[in-house]
Specification:
The chain has 197 residues and is an alpha+beta fold. It contains 4 helices and 11 strands. It has a 4-stranded antiparallel beta sheet with strand order 1-2-3-4, with no helix packed on it. A 4-stranded antiparallel beta sheet has the order 5-6-7-8. A 3-stranded antiparallel beta sheet has the order 9-10-11, with no helix packed on it. The longest helix is centred in the first third of the chain and has 15 residues. The N and C termini lie far apart (109 Å). About 6% of the residues have low confidence.
């Protein structure tokens, strides 16, 4: 009678997947974990120095910055330095007028169907501005391969010179014209004179 109860039931045999697990080396398991971890690895979280809550990277109209996720309760903002929050801006490049650090504003990536239009848009939107902008220094410089374009100060008033086109060709004039009427001839893309060597 007991034999009838067990008719049709086969004895336990190792499953093929169980056998594969038994044949797998411990090092294979490590490789598998690394492969799955790289896909689902969370991004590093940066915390607000004021309230210790997470911060997030925000694309603002003056370039990327980091803000606290509890805004408006905590309005702490930090500069973006190579994708990480920083109390101080990039110290490598300084304003030629007031010597404060410059901040890079990069063009936002967009789906452009015309390559020429995309290039023109990138040239318009990639620039550097002075961190003293709200203190009166309105210097903005175009981007030149990831660094600010060369700029020269007016030897008379100390403001920036701008390249201009006049009836006699290209020249450099003070950005404070008509208050300062200094002008210099153009020599290979820079003003001519001993002050600019």
């Amino acid at each position: 009678m007991c034999a009838d109860l067990f008719d049709g039931i086969e004895p336990d045999r190792p499953d093929k997947s169980d056998q594969a697990k038994a044949d797998k080396k411990p090092s294979d398991d490590v490789v598998d974990r690394r492969a799955t971890d790289s896909v689902t690895a969370p991004q590093r979280v940066f915390y607000c120095p004021r309230c210790r809550n997470p911060m997030r990277r925000i694309e603002g109209k003056m370039g990327p910055f980091w803000g606290c996720t509890t805004y408006p309760v905590c309005d702490k903002k930090l500069y973006d330095l190579d994708g990480h929050p920083s109390e101080t801006p990039d110290q490598r490049y300084r304003c030629p007028v007031c010597t404060r650090p410059l901040v890079h504003v990069q063009a936002k990536a967009g789906a452009e169907n015309d390559a020429d239009e995309a290039q023109a848009r990138t040239e318009r939107e990639d620039y550097w501005y002075c961190t003293g902008y709200n203190k009166g220094c309105k210097v903005t410089l175009p981007d030149s391969n990831g660094k600010p374009a060369d700029a020269w100060r007016c030897p008379r008033c100390g403001h920036l010179l701008k390249q201009r086109r006049g009836k006699n060709g290209v020249f450099w004039g003070c950005s404070q014209y008509p208050l300062c009427t200094a002008s210099f001839t153009d020599m290979g893309g820079k003003p001519k004179g001993p002050e600019f060597e």
